[in-house]
Design brief:
It is built from three helices and nine strands. By secondary structure, the protein is of the alpha/beta class. It has one domain: Nucleoside Triphosphate Pyrophosphohydrolase. Strands 1, 2, 3, 4, 5, 6, 7, 8 and 9 form a nine-stranded mixed β-sheet that branches.
């Protein structure tokens, strides 16, 4: 078993609505390991701003270029079995250049991306649970906070 870090991991994610569809990426490198989908993003690198980290993560995972807007969600989750704890800051973003078909994530985590309509999202397993509400309903509202929830695989 891998030891959990002594403090929470900080990550950033992009909420990108394009022509009424939300950009999602697989959240597990092995498609057989999980059917979970999430907003693109990942761990923050020290010395770079949060918006720069969001732009880097989206480019690495999808090949897309984005403009980063305001924060819209703070989400945190943990794995009670290992002590893993992650705090995620979500930003509203817009596409400057679309995701690239056949793109390869250099980290090897993201193997698929897709743009989904809200009705289609209801049939997918997506985290965090509030992502649809944040993406489609919260465009003009204040940022939301999701309380600590257990990780799922």
């Amino acid at each position: 078993m891998v030891a959990a870090p002594a403090q929470p991991r900080l990550a950033v994610r992009a909420v990108i609505l394009h022509e009424g569809r939300l950009l999602l990426v697989n959240a597990w490198p092995d498609p057989a390991g999980s059917d979970l989908w999430a907003a693109p993003g990942g761990g923050v690198e020290a010395g770079a701003s949060l918006p720069a980290n969001v732009m880097r993560e989206v480019a690495e995972e999808t090949g897309a270029r984005i403009a980063v807007g305001a924060p819209c969600l703070v989400n945190e989750f943990h794995d009670p079995a290992t002590g893993w704890h992650q705090v995620e800051l979500f930003f509203r973003c817009r596409l400057l250049a679309p995701p690239v078909e056949g793109w390869t994530d250099p980290a090897g985590v993201v193997t698929r991306w897709r743009l989904v309509a809200r009705a289609e999202l209801a049939g997918l397993r997506v985290k965090p649970d509030s992502l649809a509400a944040v993406a489609w309903e919260g465009a003009a509202g204040a940022a939301r906070y999701d309380p600590l929830e257990p990780i799922c695989r």
